[in-house]
Amino acid sequence: MKFHNHTLSVLAMSVISILLLTSCRTSSGEEIGTTTTTTTPTGTKSDVTFWLTNSDKTVLFQKQNSSLNFSDNSQGISTIFVDTTQTYQTIDGFGFALTGGSATLLNNLDDGPKTELLKELFLTDSTHIGISYLRISIGASDLSAEPFTYDEVASGQRDDNLLSFSIARENTDLIPVLQKIVALNPNIKIIATPWTAPTWMKTNNDFVGGSLRADCYDVYARYFIKYLLAMKNAGIPIEAITPQNEPLNAYNNPAMLMMADEQTNFIKNYLGPQLRANNLSTKIIVYDHNLDHPEYPINVLDDAGAATYIDGSAFHLYAGNIETMSTVHASHPTKNLYFTEQYTASTGTFSGDLQWHIQNLIIGATRNWSRNVIEWNLASNPSLGPHTAGGCTTCLGALTIGSTVSRNVSYYVIAHAAKYIRPGSVRIGSSVISNLPNVAFKTPDGYKVLIVLNPTSVPVVFTISFNKKTVSPTLTAGGVGTFVWK
Question: Annotated catalytic sites, by residue?
Answer without folding.
Answer: 246, 341
